[in-house]
UniProtKB/TrEMBL annotation:
Chain's role: Involved in chemotaxis. Part of a chemotaxis signal transduction system that modulates chemotaxis in response to various stimuli. Catalyzes the demethylation of specific methylglutamate residues introduced into the chemoreceptors (methyl-accepting chemotaxis proteins or MCP) by CheR. Also mediates the irreversible deamidation of specific glutamine residues to glutamic acid.
Recorded domain comment: Contains a C-terminal catalytic domain, and an N-terminal region which modulates catalytic activity.
Cellular location(s): Cytoplasm
Protein's UniProt keywords contain Nucleotide-binding: no
Family assignment from sequence similarity: Belongs to the CheB family.
Gene Ontology biological process terms in this record: chemotaxis; methylation
Organism of provenance: Gemmata obscuriglobus
Keywords from the UniProt entry: Chemotaxis, Cytoplasm, Hydrolase, Methyltransferase, Phosphoprotein, Transferase
EC annotation from Swiss-Prot or TrEMBL: 3.1.1.61, 3.5.1.44
Official protein name in the record: Protein-glutamate methylesterase/protein-glutamine glutaminase
Cellular component GO terms held in the UniProt record: cytoplasm
GO molecular function terms listed in the Swiss-Prot or TrEMBL record: methyltransferase activity; phosphorelay response regulator activity; protein-glutamate methylesterase activity; protein-glutamine glutaminase activity
Catalysed reaction, written as an equation: [protein]-L-glutamate 5-O-methyl ester + H2O = L-glutamyl-[protein] + methanol + H(+); L-glutaminyl-[protein] + H2O = L-glutamyl-[protein] + NH4(+)
SUPFAM superfamilies, per the entry: CheY-like, Methylesterase CheB, C-terminal domain
């Protein structure tokens, strides 16, 4: 794997070079000491991944990421001195198209690299995704399809590259008295899930919380997958996490969440697949549509990366393909329609509606 390194500190560039070259098969394609240089070098020599610092002179990591994704898209991994101290910037970078974020490794007084394991793990995960390992081989779930009387309408959201910003747009449209429970699967490291929850909460009128193992979903609440395992919805409307499929490089997998709803809930809801690299979620969205759910894919013009929604559109998995600024309002309207149908005693929806 060819890696571009961007950091304004020479010692940080050297540390990252040592980490990269210590992994068999990894090479440094180039280094850059600011965002402008990174944008230019990516355009001339696109690597498999760019390790992007956040705080730099001239052009910071957020804007450099945005320009790279617009001009010469490739995976960007934020590597900054302290993710926790810079999370607002990290959130902006993820919205601009970065795939993940990790703290920069350091050198100890003896010159040895320390705290590199998380970066190496992130690179291995990304390498697996680039190799085309599929996250769509979903394990069947036990149990039968059901809908307890108190199960609220469900909204499922899946996203990857550029997802935090897209999710913020969508959830900002939900009213304070929203009748649905909202489940989110966003490809993001588990250590940043709480930060994502906090950022979404700033945009949303509903309470936004980390999805907890065994928790029962409730109307008017947004639940965010928060581990490196996959979030599922079980037949008794409780949430659970599973490591399967272990081969999936997409974690948490959107396909796993979507498929669990198909297998375990007979009452149709609304699902949307947002911006992201790869094809995770497309197969699950198709299953949801076939089961009567109203399914939406984000359109190309508003995606940071038109990968996952494109795969869904090609499978005809989406009833509608919409700009991100219209998805939230459409979801609210469809949930309200589902509630009216439920009160009238009508079950199911027309998958072609």
């Amino acid at each position: 794997m060819r890696v571009g390194i961007v950091n304004d500190l020479a010692v940080a560039r050297e540390t990252l070079r040592r980490v990269v070259t210590a992994v068999p098969g990894y090479v440094v394609a180039w280094t850059a000491d600011d965002g402008d240089e990174a944008v230019s070098k990516t355009a001339c020599d696109r690597p498999d991944v760019v390790l992007m610092d956040l705080v730099m002179p001239r052009l910071n990591g957020v804007e450099a990421t945005r320009q790279i994704m617009q001009r010469s898209p490739c995976p960007v991994l934020v590597v900054t001195a302290s993710v926790s101290n810079h999370f607002p910037l990290v959130f902006q970078a993820l919205g601009a198209g970065a795939v993940d974020a990790v703290d920069t490794p350091t050198l100890n007084p003896n010159g040895a690299v320390q705290n590199a394991s998380k970066l190496v793990e992130r690179l291995a995960k990304l390498e697996a995704a680039l190799a085309g390992l599929s996250g769509s081989a979903i394990m069947p779930l036990a149990g039968t399809s059901s809908h307890p009387a108190d199960l609220p309408p469900l909204v499922l959201l899946g996203a990857s590259t550029g997802g935090p910003e897209a999710l913020a747009h969508v959830v900002s449209a939900f009213p304070a008295d929203f009748a649905a429970a909202v489940l989110i699967s966003q490809h993001i490291g588990a250590d940043f899930a709480q930060g994502l929850v906090q950022q979404l909460a700033a945009w949303c009128r509903l309470p936004v919380r980390v999805a907890q193992e065994g928790e029962r979903v409730r109307a008017g609440t947004v639940y965010v997958a928060a581990t490196d395992d996959h979030l599922e919805l079980s037949a008794d409307r409780t949430l659970r996490y599973t490591p399967n499929p272990k081969s999936s490089p997409y974690r948490p997998s959107v396909d796993v969440l979507f498929t669990s709803a198909v297998n375990n809930v007979s009452r149709p809801g609304v699902a949307a697949l947002l911006t992201g690299m790869g094809h995770d979620g497309a197969a699950g969205l198709l299953k949801l549509r076939a089961a009567g759910w109203h399914t939406v894919a984000q359109d190309e013009s508003t995606c940071v990366v038109y990968g996952m929604p494109k795969a869904a559109a090609e499978k005809r998995a989406a009833v509608e393909v919409l700009a991100v600024q219209h998805i939230g309002a459409t979801i609210v309207a469809k949930v309200n329609a589902l509630k009216r149908r439920s009160h009238a005693g009508i079950s199911g929806t027309d998958p072609s509606a």
